[in-house]
Amino acid sequence: MLTSAITISLGLVGLATALTLWRLARGPTMPDRILALDTLAIDVIAIVVLMGLATGSVFSFEAALLIAMMGFVGTVALCKYLIGRSIIE
């Protein structure tokens, strides 16, 4: 039962990732692309966690935490760059 739920979840997250990549490529504005990158990081976190559940690996949760931190820092840096402020203050 759990394996089928994980498989269905991976398929749906894969669909969400494909739609996010479409938004990233399509745009139309830079804030849309930044939001798509942030959503893509969340999609990757979900895939890593689901794969960790499927394989029983503990290290995938640590990898998900690292991806979350890097995604947050990247989003903040891109937003600060977009509004024209110094990235590192």
Protein topology:
Elements lengths: L1 H25 L3 H26 L3 H24 L7
Helix pairs in contact: 1-2, 2-3
What does this structure look like?
The chain has helices spanning 2-26, 30-55, 59-82. It is mostly helical and 89 residues long.
Q: Report the radius of gyration as a whole number of Å.
A: 15 Å
The H-and-E topology, N to C, reads as HHH
Specify the biggest β-sheet: none
- Residue stretches low in confidence (pLDDT < 50, at least 5 long) are none
Specify the helix fraction band: over 70%
By secondary-structure content and strand pairing, the structural class works out as mainly alpha
- SS strand fraction: under 5%
Overall outline: flat
Count helical runs: 3
Mean pLDDT: 91
